[in-house]
Specification:
With about 180 residues, the protein is mainly α. The protein is about 75% helix and about 0% strand. The protein contains 4 helices and no strands. Helix 3 packs antiparallel against helix 4. The longest helix has about 45 residues. The radius of gyration is 21 Å and the shape is elongated.
C-alpha cells in the first residue's frame, strides 16, 4: 500500500510542526538560562568586597555545568530537527514541492539558496563559550591576573564542545547516507 498525496501532505505538515517546535524550544529554554547567567554575573560583579578568584572559579564551573546541559540539550534537539528536515525534503520531492529542498546543500530541487553568516548551531556554541568562560573572565577583570582557579571551567567546556562536534558529524553523516538511498 502506498500513501496517497493527502497522507504525504499530512505527514509533511506534522514534520514541519515538529521541526519548528524543536528549533524554537532550545532557544526558549536557553534564553532563560542565559538571562540567569547575566543576573548572576551582576551579583558577582557588584559584590562588596569582591569575591576571590577561587569563588569565581567555582562559580564558573557551576555556570559551565548548567550551560553544558543546555548545549547538549540543544544539540539533541538539533539532531531531531535535522532528521525532520530531511524527511520534509523527501516528502517535498514526492509531492513536487520545493520550500525546503531549495535550501538543501546537495542541490536537490530546482534552485539552491545560499544562506550566509553564522548558523544557529554555531551561535549556540558561541553563546555556550561566552557564558561558560565569562565568569572566569569577570574574575580576572575584578581580581587582576588570572589564577588556576579561573581556568576550572575550561576543561569541561572543551569536553562538551568536542562531544557536540562529534554528535554533529555523526548526524550529518547519517543524513548524507540517507540522502543517497
Amino acid at each position: 500500500m502506498t500513501p496517497d498525496d493527502e497522507s504525504l501532505r499530512d505527514e509533511n505538515q506534522a514534520s514541519q510542526d515538529c521541526y519548528l517546535h524543536y528549533d524554537a524550544f532550545r532557544w526558549q529554554a536557553g534564553s532563560i538560562l542565559i538571562a540567569g547567567v547575566f543576573v548572576f554575573w551582576g551579583v558577582l560583579f557588584t559584590s562588596t568586597p569582591p569575591p576571590s578568584q577561587r569563588i569565581f572559579g567555582q562559580a564558573g564551573v557551576l555556570v559551565a555545568l548548567l550551560m553544558s546541559l543546555w548545549l547538549l540539550f540543544a544539540q539533541h534537539y538539533r539532531q531531531i530537527y535535522l532528521f525532520k528536515l530531511h524527511r520534509i525534503r523527501e516528502l517535498e520531492g514526492l509531492l513536487g514541492m520545493e520550500q525546503h529542498r531549495r535550501f538543501w546543500r546537495d542541490g536537490v530541487g530546482n534552485a539552491q539558496y545560499n544562506v550566509s553568516g553564522l548558523r544557529g548551531h554555531v551561535l549556540d556554541r558561541l553563546m555556550y563559550v561566552v557564558t561558560s568562560c565569562g565568569t572566569s573572565a569577570l574574575g580576572a577583570i575584578i581580581n587582576g591576573p588570572a589564577s588556576y582557579w579561573l581556568l576550572a571551567p575550561v576543561p569541561l567546556a572543551l569536553v562538551v564542545l568536542l562531544t557536540v562536534q562529534i554528535n554533529e558529524r555523526r548526524t550529518q553523516a547519517t543524513i548524507k547516507t540517507l540522502s543517497r538511498v
